[in-house]
Write a sequence for this structure.
């Protein structure tokens, strides 16, 4: 799938903040390098030495990992550092998972789900995802055959970075329901979301990073409702704002906005919305 799209991007610099312009508009500049290749990998099980988990990350489609013959089998790779992950590519053998999760972790113990596939078809499945972490796991839930699950290759793509906005204080122009509060947009749980009131014609959500940070981008996972036209701005004081990215023809899904800036506050401002409902599952601030 190399590579993702960023729609209608524009940059605006101001003296208040450090903002670097002139970057590519081809989405979050995700590396074309398979981050998983040759990395340390573990699995719930494997049939034998010729199909151990390292075979799924050796860059060789003639070898494979194969699990024991049961459901709930998994394989996890340690990328060696934290990355903003935007793509996972699975090359299945005939024994594949019909239902599975993609999870990420900072420590290899506590996992966050970033993608669930309910209708796996096997073959090569190229998935657009949104998550940050050092570890990435394919968690099989249900196998499609009487065998286990087996992968020729488990590939991961992304850019170096950490979600510095995770679980930070957030405010918003409005909230639709108590089940859609602003903090849900930064809780690293794609099953929760923030939604503004239906009467809010220009919804905004602001993340307070706590101190001035170096910011490399802001990624958004939209729900059913989204903003066709929006901008990302940064600020040192929460009052004076500098626009660092603007998207004018958004069609929902997942947006990867890459820029270079510094500031304490990051704000998503919507110029419009469609349809009436407006849903942000995740707002990630990538930086250091």
């Amino acid at each position: 799938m190399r590579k993702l799209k960023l729609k209608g991007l524009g940059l605006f610099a101001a003296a208040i903040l450090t903002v670097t312009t002139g970057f590519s508009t081809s989405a979050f500049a995700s590396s074309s390098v398979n981050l998983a290749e040759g990395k340390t990998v573990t699995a719930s099980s494997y049939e034998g030495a010729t199909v151990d988990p390292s075979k799924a990350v050796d860059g060789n489609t003639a070898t494979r990992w194969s699990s024991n013959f049961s459901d709930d089998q998994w394989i996890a790779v340690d990328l060696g550092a934290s990355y903003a992950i935007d793509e996972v590519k699975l090359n299945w053998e005939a024994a594949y998972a019909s239902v599975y999760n993609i999870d990420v972790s900072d420590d290899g113990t506590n996992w966050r789900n970033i993608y669930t596939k309910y209708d796996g078809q096997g073959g090569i499945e190229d998935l657009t995802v949104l998550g940050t972490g050092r570890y990435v796991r394919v968690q099989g839930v249900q196998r499609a055959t009487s065998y286990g699950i087996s992968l020729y290759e488990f590939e991961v793509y992304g850019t170096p970075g950490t979600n510095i906005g995770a679980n930070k204080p957030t405010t918003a122009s409005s909230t639709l329901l108590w089940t859609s509060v602003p903090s849900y947009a930064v809780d690293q749980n794609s099953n929760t979301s923030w939604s503004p009131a239906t009467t809010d014609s220009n919804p905004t959500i602001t993340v307070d990073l706590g101190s001035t940070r170096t910011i490399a981008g802001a990624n958004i996972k939209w729900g059913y409702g989204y903003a066709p036209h929006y901008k990302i701005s940064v600020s040192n004081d929460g009052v004076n704002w500098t626009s660092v990215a603007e998207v004018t023809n958004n069609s929902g899904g997942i947006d990867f906005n890459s820029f270079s800036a510094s500031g304490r506050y990051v704000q998503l401002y919507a110029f419009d919305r469609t349809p009436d409902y407006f849903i942000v599952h995740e707002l990630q601030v990538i930086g250091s």
Notes: Residues 100 and 117 are 5 Å apart (CA to CA).
